[in-house]
Design goal:
Number of helices: 9
CATH architecture: 3-Layer(aba) Sandwich
Distance between the termini: 30 Å
Radius of gyration: 16 Å
CATH class: Alpha Beta
Oligomer: single chain
Strand content: 15-25%
Order of helices and strands: EHEHEHEHEHEHEHHH
CATH superfamily: P-loop containing nucleotide triphosphate hydrolases
Helix content: 40-55%
Length: about 240
Amino acid sequence: MRVAVIASKGGAGKSSLAIALAGEAQARGRSALLVDGDHGQGTCLLWAETAGAAGRPAPTVVAMGPGMHRPDQLPKVAEPYDWVVIDTPGRLSDVQRSALMFTDLALVVTGPSVAEGWALASAIQVVQEAQTLRPALKAAMVLTRKQPRTAVGKVARRGIESAGLPVLRSEISYRVVWQECLALGASVSTYDRGDSALEVRRLYEELEAFTLGVQDDGKEPAPARAASAGRRSRR
């Protein structure tokens, strides 16, 4: 399972989501590799350092840039891992194009703001260009940083459904626990005990089903095996 997390602008929660997916894979007993391709921010590397200092388990994290798709680069490093999640920059660049030459799935992340909706076209174009070279490359969009129980999220979803790529049923809501996990070097799905963890598990299972081309049954996902002690109540 190889997922490249793509966005055409910052602020959509791209890096946090990449970390959460790799953390969920590890919590389920998969070997997970998290690739930090966003050298300007380095969020994944900093998070892994924080996790190590706190004694928390974390996926293997490496930094790679343009050319990661070359045979002697990411394909070689990723070979022993079950899950590979690539965090790309929050702007269109050669790093994203290189990641799309390697990955099974392009996951386009967008928040609920109007500006993020306007910026989708360029990200989708880059993905579709990659699909002309690699017809087997799958692509989907996920709505992030949604405000729970508000009309804004519903309007945003209707907007992105006409953007040209499939929209996953799973959505990621904005809650304080996401920032706490970054600061503590924790994984959302094992640190949180409420809705944020459930949303990550739903997304993880939907991504596996989507990539394999099977219909997601919509059932509540079972909790992953805890890789670290969680303590959060619902937020």
